[in-house]
Specification:
- There is one protein chain.
- With about 550 residues, the chain is an alpha+beta fold.
- The protein folds into four domains: about 1-120, Agglutinin, subunit A; about 125-295, Agglutinin, subunit A (Orthogonal Prism); about 300-390, Hepatocyte Growth Factor (3-Layer(bba) Sandwich), CATH 3.50.4; about 450-515, no CATH class.
- A five-stranded mixed β-sheet has the order 29-33-24-25-35, with no helix packed on it. A five-stranded antiparallel β-sheet has the order 28-34-31-32-30, with helices on one face. Strands 1-6-7-8 form a four-stranded antiparallel β-sheet, with no helix packed on it.
- The longest helix is centred in the last third of the chain and has 33 residues, at about 420-450.
- It is extended, with a radius of gyration of 36 Å.
- Its main location: membrane.
């Protein structure tokens, strides 16, 4: 009691006995620090491996801030102005100590072991193996990848005892996973168990009391893992590859990129392409409110009136908006749906779609255009309401710039990339480049042969060796093609080599244009290897490993 950890001392760090976890002050911005717990490896101060933060919504200054144990048994985080940024709200007349356990749980306890406070009871956005999610706890995403303050996405047990993902935005809130239109049984859940506990183990198995279970892609191996609610509204399990010293995604709740609610804000919609990722796009006639925060959505560049004769509609195909339906009508044609929207001054547009499970059209009039997404699976369109005096068009909509969402997560599809695939890609690129170079050389040499018509036998042999072609008389041309194919080159080189008792035969096959500017020994080895590789007896030809060895 009375001791403290200072933000200015980099050695004031708690390390678990097994050295897997560390706790201390972590820089989360420019002169902004939070007292946090993180996985010690692979990066000692990497925010990506943080498992808990004390003061995520009130960071402290990098000068004079400290975490202290008071004489009355409280643990407080004080900034430079002596303001309390965070407190454990505990009290004890007996001595206490702060201890970081092997499982990553930071505990404030009596010297006899009685726990007064523990970080497992106050999670931020992450669970570690063995840490339970209960009826009293929830995971809250960060605002963005760089802003670690509390965001809009929450993971908790609802009043029906079902574990799910929820969007809690500045203006509206909604549930989106499991799919809200499904009853618990259809979603594979049960709401009869009111104990509300979910936990992930180190083998990669997660189970909860609502009958929801999953296993990670690397299930069965004890690894460092963390379950996290990311700032894009998805829940993912990250596992650590001990060999590559990196984290990878081993499970995720949502596979489609645009399911999360509120991801692009009002009057906008989300598109997802696997290669380029998720994008947000304003509706036609709207502009982005905040270029650094898509969750604020887009604002209209026009004003609607309540006079139906002053409104028109613009079709946006394969785009749907979830929720905020003022009317829902089945077996509705387009005209009836349009009239229904025109009769309502609060109607911003309507959704007209066809359903495969029920062979008729459905009409939804919208009071808000939120949770929009473009999907080729959606067999319908959204019709956006405009004043007739507008000058917007599909072309203007198409020219709207695309902006990445503030939160992006790179998924590792195979989780651990194969090094062999990387080699194959390099080899294919090299082969393609080499092939293109050979084609260029062939064309250039062919042009050279056409312009230099020399009949000297040796000179013709040089051309033969370089290109594989030579001139033939009419009588020669009637010989069998196989007899006079590239074998002429081999025969010519072997003849030169066989007629010489020393190494001067190399000089006789080198084109005069080259002169003496070459390595005589290397050229002799190259020619010898080439002759061995085209021997008529295939069994006598060297293997690739032997060729490499001879050329070294």
């Amino acid at each position: 009691m009375g001791s403290s950890l200072s933000v200015e001392n980099p050695h004031h760090i708690l390390i678990s006995p097994n050295a897997i976890f560390s706790a201390g002050f972590l820089a989360i911005g420019d002169n902004a620090y939070s007292f946090a717990i993180w996985f010690t490896e692979p990066h000692f101060h990497s925010p990506t491996s943080v498992t808990w933060m004390a003061n995520r919504d009130q960071p402290v200054n990098g000068k004079s801030s400290k975490l202290s144990l008071t004489n009355d048994g409280n643990m407080v985080l004080i900034d430079a102005a002596l303001n309390i940024a965070w407190s454990s709200n505990t009290a004890s007349s007996a001595p206490v100590e702060l201890h970081l356990k092997d499982d990553g749980n930071l505990v404030l306890r009596h010297l006899q072991g009685t726990v007064l406070w523990q970080s497992f009871d106050f999670p931020t956005d992450t669970l570690v193996p063995g840490q339970p999610l209960t009826r009293y706890t929830q995971l809250v995403s960060s605002r963005s990848e760089s802003n670690h303050s509390s965001g809009f996405y929450k993971f908790f047990f609802d009043d029906d005892n079902v574990l799910g993902l929820h969007y809690d935005g500045p203006d509206v809130s909604s549930s989106y996973w499991p799919q809200p239109w499904l009853i618990s049984w259809d979603a594979g859940r049960t709401n009869f168990n009111s104990s509300r506990i979910g936990v992930l183990n180190s083998m990669g198995l997660f189970s909860s009391t609502d009958n929801f279970t999953f296993v990670t892609s690397d299930y069965g191996t004890v690894l460092q893992r963390r379950l996290k609610v990311d700032c894009d509204g998805n829940v993912r399990v990250y596992s650590r590859n001990n060999v590559l010293q990196k984290w990878y995604v081993s499970w995720q709740a949502i596979s489609s990129g645009c399911i999360s609610h509120g991801i692009c804000g009002t009057n906008s919609f989300c598109t997802y392409v696997p290669k380029s990722g998720r994008k947000c796009l304003c509706l036609p006639g709207h502009r982005l409110k905040n270029h650094s925060d898509w969750s604020q959505g887009c604002e209209p560049l026009f004003q609607l009136t309540c006079h139906r004769n002053e409104s028109m509609f613009l079709e946006i195909r394969n785009v749907e908006f979830y929720g905020y339906d003022n009317h829902y009508v089945e077996v509705s044609n387009y005209s009836a749906c349009e009239n229904l929207c025109l009769q309502d001054c609060s109607c911003k547009g309507f959704q007209h779609s066809y359903s495969d499970d029920k062979p008729f059209y459905r009409c939804y009039t919208k009071t808000q255009l939120l949770n929009g997404r473009r999907s080729p699976v959606f067999q319908g369109a959204t019709y956006l309401r405009f004043p007739k005096s507008n000058s917007f068009s599909h072309k203007e909509h198409a020219s709207e710039p695309l902006y990445d969402h503030v939160c992006s997560v790179q998924l590792q599809r195979d989780y651990i990339k194969s090094q062999g695939n990387h080699f194959v890609k390099i080899f294919l690129w090299f082969s393609t480049a080499l092939g293109a170079f050979e084609v260029i050389c062939f064309v250039l040499i062919w042009c050279l042969v056409r312009t230099r018509q020399k009949s000297n036998v040796d000179r013709e042999g040089y051309h033969l060796a370089e290109t594989g072609f030579r001139k033939y008389s009419y009588s020669e041309s009637i010989h069998d093609d196989e007899e006079r194919y590239d074998g002429r080159v081999v025969e010519w080189v072997r003849e030169k080599k066989g007629n010489s008792s020393n190494s001067y035969w190399v000089e006789e096959i080198i084109a005069p244009d080259i002169g003496a500017d070459y390595d005589h020994r290397k050229m002799e080895i190259l020619c010898t290897v080439a002759l061995n590789c085209v021997m008529e007896d295939r069994d006598s030809r060297p293997t690739m490993s032997q060729v490499v060895e001879m050329l070294q």
